[in-house]
Amino acid sequence: MQGHSEERPVDKSPVAPDRAEVYEVFVRPRRGLSHTHVGSVHAHGPDTALRYARDLYTRRTEGVGLWVVPAAAIKSSNPDEKDMFFDPAEDKTYRHANSYEVPEGVEHL
């Protein structure tokens, strides 16, 4: 817009200005629902990542809450080791809900 200058807040994050980090973005569509992963942004700190995420993933008021998490902080299991990683749960039958009665009127557990 001509004649309009917008003052942007300075991000005082500890990340070097020449090295952006990848942040994973989670949106909460409305109160009472869980946050859902929607994508990622590259930013020079969490404050900037939050603004980028807002601009990219909630343009049409798709959410009521945003989380941004540095991708480097996420630890995940390896899909190639699925059998070994998840196998110990098979011998713990108390973790399976097949011995519980579902109360009348409950559709989803």
Concise overview:
The chain has helices at 46-57, 82-86, and strands spanning 21-28, 36-43, 65-70.
What can you see in these coordinates?
The chain has about 110 residues and is an alpha+beta fold. The protein is built from 2 helices and 3 strands. A hairpin with a 7-residue loop joins β1 (about 20-30) and β2 (about 35-45). The longest helix is centred in the middle third of the chain and has 12 residues, at about 45-55. The protein starts with 20 loop residues before the first strand and ends in a 23-residue tail after the last helix.
At CATH level 2, the architecture is: Roll
Helix content: 10-25%
Mean pLDDT: 79
How far is the first residue's CA from the last residue's CA? Answer: 52 Å
The beta-strand count equals: 3
Uncertain spans: 1-13
CATH structural class: Alpha Beta
CATH superfamily: Phenylacetic acid degradation B
Q: How many whole angstroms does the radius of gyration measure?
A: 21 Å
Largest sheet: 3 strands, antiparallel
Secondary-structure-based class equals: alpha+beta
Q: In which order are the strands of the major sheet placed?
A: 2-1-3
Secondary-structure element string: EEHEH
Query: Given the C-alpha coordinates, what overall shape results?
Result: flat
Overall number of domains? 1
* Percent in strands: 15-25%
Q: What's the number of helices?
A: 2
CATH topology: Ubiquitin-like (UB roll)
